Amino acid sequence: MSAEFRRAAAAFLLAAAFHATSAGAVSISAAVGKVLFLKSGSYTWAQISTGQILAPGDQLKTATGASATVSFDDGSRVELNPGSSFTLKESSPQASAMELKLGSLKAWISKSLNRRFQVRTPTAVCSVRGTEFGVDVDGTGDTHVQMFGGLLAVADKSGNEVLVKDTQSVDVTRDGLGRVSEASPRDQAPEADASRVAKREVDLRMSKEEVQAAAVEESKLAEFQEGKALIDVNGNRVRIEEYIIRPAADQFKLVVLNERVDRFDYFFYHGTFNQALPTDMSVALRQITGCLDAACSYFMTGYRTGRSNTQDNMLEVTSGGHQVDLNNNAFGAGDDVSAAYDPASASFVSVAAGRPFFSTLYDGYDLSFNGVTHGSWAGVNVQNMESGDALAPVFTNVTTVQLQPGCAPPDCTYNEISEGIFHDVVYASNLAGDIWEKYDSYVINDAGKIATTRDFASTGFSGTSFKQTLLGWNFQTIVTASEFNGRKIDLVVEPKIFIQSGLIP
Q: What is the DSSP string of 344-364?
């Protein structure tokens, strides 16, 4: 074989290989604002960059004010409008298919290749060869299809189909296809109609489906977002999704979703600050744990946390938050802080007696399980949290931590941290013992192994080294209560989002 032939053969094989990998190629040709990308098989969302190649199963989300253009190798393109959730389902020389779960898009489909092109939504399937159209999906999955030219076949989930052409439109709901009607003029782009989008947020007393739908809507505005799959302490596979949003200028909200084969648990933490949060939200969140030497610039005036398994719930509500110098208040040394996080050194430091340390105390507090109050207080300008003092709030219906002599797990509070194992239990009940709550907490890795103090010994339990090590571990807390009738709320969180946002300073 001559050298020339070998070179020609190599060039041919290289060209063939390139064609095989590029045929059906899909990429991001433009992105404006916050556009998040989730690789198929991954659980971590990342900011998209122009030129990113998409493969089947990859997902995109556009935040408020953001947009993205998805381009195909035949010249076709799809523009995603703000607040959209998109998945590429198929990409080959014969067919391109995608799913729009929420939001809106506009598509320009090339007639140059004989390729099937589909856009699927929760209620509709749009099939086309060569046309221009828009699709809008609201929070319930209802779909509005608008034509701008050409011919489009639109089908519902029952297989009923209609042809939509030129400037016509059709709505598809869970009940099926609507009537084809004349749409708005051609020059009007299909923008998301805010009145058609359900304004919902993750809260208590919601079904799994309602929580997931609300989370899709909320997470479009996420400033921090993480997720992954792991094995919990009981050997069950759990998928975690976490995000932090800014519901209002002075608020933040953390949401954690846990999905297992046989259960769904979720948690939220919604806090209101004394002033509008800065552009970098972490500046304010790092001050939640308190501030040395001077009052915090940002502190919460109240917060609301909730946990649920979609059947049972735990709700915590506070109000009247204000700053108090715990080391110099009227209560004396009873509530002094001897160690605190110092942002200047990014580590915990010893705090000398009398050195100012400001923390947020709340005039009002209520903790309930399935609507039954377990602990509460009411006060005015509370200066400490110890009962029996003149400045203390008035406590009612309080469960107390049980440390009875000779008790054995699980009937009292105990921990294994002193033995080098990160597992502890807090058990609290009223005097009669008929109202009680229990928190069973672990630090585990992704395989469900419980951490030991040896795993963190080299970090000094503070600073950059500690946080870097913590990224390989997760927190799991199992909550049971007298009102749950043997059921539990079982939540696993990964710390990465807490470190990124400043919740773990």
A: TTTEEEE--TT--EEEEE-SE
Q: What is the pLDDT of residue 191?
A: 40
Nearest to 245 by CA among 504, 505, 501, 492: 501
CA dihedral angle for residue 183, residue 189, residue 195, residue 201, rounded to 10 degrees: 140
Contact predicate 105/86, CB 8 Å = yes
53 has which bridge partners? 27
> What is the DSSP code (8-state) at residue 384?
-
- The sheet with strand 322-325 has its strands ordered as 291-292, 357-361, 322-325
Task: State mean pLDDT over 247-258.
Answer: 93
- Label the pairing between strands 116-120 and 95-108: parallel
Residue pair 38/45 in contact (Cβ under 8 Å)? The answer is yes
C-alpha span between 201 and 266 (Å, rounded) = 13
182: left (phi over 0), alpha (psi -120 to 50) or beta: beta
Q: Phi-psi category of 493—alpha, beta or left, where left has phi over 0 and alpha has psi -120 to 50? A: beta
Question: Which helix (H) or strand (E) segment is 499 a member of?
Answer: helix 496-501
The per-residue pLDDT for range 411-435, each reduced to its tens digit, is 677 777 767 888 988 888 887 788 8
Neighbours of 168 (CB within 10 A): 18
Domains and CATH numbers, the chain: 3-196 (2.60.120.1440), 208-501 (no CATH)
Tell me the C-alpha distance between 84 and 46, whole Å: 16
Instruction: Show Cβ contacts of residue 405 under 8 Å, excluding neighbours closer than 6 positions.
Output: none
CB-based contacts of 39: which residues, under 8 Å, 6+ apart? 55, 58
CA angle (178, 180, 181) in 5-degree steps = 120
Residue-wise pLDDT tens digits, 19-49: 333 345 788 888 888 888 888 887 778 888 7
Measured in degrees and rounded to the nearest 5, phi and psi for residue 180 equal -75, 130
Mean residue pLDDT across the chain: 81
Other beta carbons within 10 Å of 320 = 18
What's the Rg (C-alpha) of the chain? 28
Half-sphere exposure (CA, 13 Å, Cβ side) for 441? 14
State the pLDDT at residue 402: 65
CB of 197 within 8 A of CB of 138? yes
Phi-psi region for residue 418, left (φ > 0), alpha (ψ -120 to 50) or beta?
alpha
DSSP-derived 3-state class of residue 114: coil
Judge contact between 154 and 161, C-beta under 8 A.
yes
- Pick the closest to residue 392 from 350, 317, 472, 329 (CA basis): 329
Q: Quick one: pLDDT at residue 95?
A: 81
Interstrand relation of 161-165 and 143-156 (parallel, antiparallel or unpaired): antiparallel
Closest CA to 215 of 190, 239, 237, 192: 239
